[in-house]
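Example record

One chain of 377 residues, shown exactly as stored in the release files.
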Amino acid sequence: MRRVIRRTAMVLVAICVALAGTTVLSSPAQAAYRPIVKTGAAVGVNSDGRLEAFVTSDVGVIWHIWQNPGGGWSEWDNLRMPSGAGAFGPKRPAVARNKDGRLEVFAVADNGHLYHIWQNPGGGWSNWESLGSGFGWANVAVAGNKDGRLEVFAVRDGQLVHRWQNPGGGWSGWANLGGSLHAETWPVVGVNADGRLELFVIGTNGRLSRNFQLAVNGTSGWSGWYSMGGDLVTGANEGPAVGRNADGRLEVFANSTDGTLRHIWQTSPNGGWSGWGTVGEGAGFPIVGRNADGRLEIVAVEGRAVVHNYQTNGRWSGWSNVGSVLAAMNRPAIASNPDGRLEIFQQHIVDGRSEIHHIYQVAPNSGWSNWSHLEAG
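Predicted structure tokens for this chain:
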């Protein structure tokens, strides 16, 4: 037995000697981590134009990934959890940019608190802070006033409430804007040509309602709710989509109970509205982006496919697939790169994993890449 052990040891030594000075190939590099997600992405634009995406993972942690200054994407990184929050819920986070360019993220946790976290001036992120409780699984909307102060909106007890950054710093208390809303409806905020914020929601009566600031920066309060009609689809996660045309006119899109996608638009910047028109057949979870040349582009989910419909020569193109057909779910997100190319972020299920994929215009205004995992590289 001792001879066998000695002989084995000698063989191992010989192997080590033979390998000395020889390059030993390492095992293939592991693929970069990609979180399993339970929400679609919220996408913010950094002050230098780089996109940054935020998602909630299957265990309730918010992860983010960003475009590197030299091109490509970073690795995924998580933003930890606030103490005592449990986990972040099934509604996606919301993100907006402060006046000085720092991104700020808002999300509702298991304990019903609406939390926010922000980029520090010197880099990195703050700790999470609560902005109040009682929000259940509300969808959150956030927008910047003309002077750069952020304002956040959410549904609480069937009514829309809002809170805003004060001019001197810090946040106001919650104020009630009223309404009669499904607890999980999706409020959206448009910005008028003059900078006034305008809110759009679908009420429990199936009508589109709007509520707008009476003066820039909200110094004179809000108008109260005005019904715009529509016979629209109601329920959890149902909400309109809003875009701003090249001339500053807002345009709103929502699915109708008759199976079509309807739209209504300002007849002039800042005021006056058309009647309802029809874009085409309905498609789920519509959102709106704007091309580099100012044309609006609607992106939605139809069956397993992500589809788009865009303005062309004063009309609409009709629906067509964006890239290959994957198992799309949830509302897409869309953002503009610094050169004006649109980029779409979508929650897809591939090989049993729910992950974020992205696709982008290969040139401003036209042409699309293939779908790919949103990952480092």
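Notes: The chain has one helix and 31 strands.
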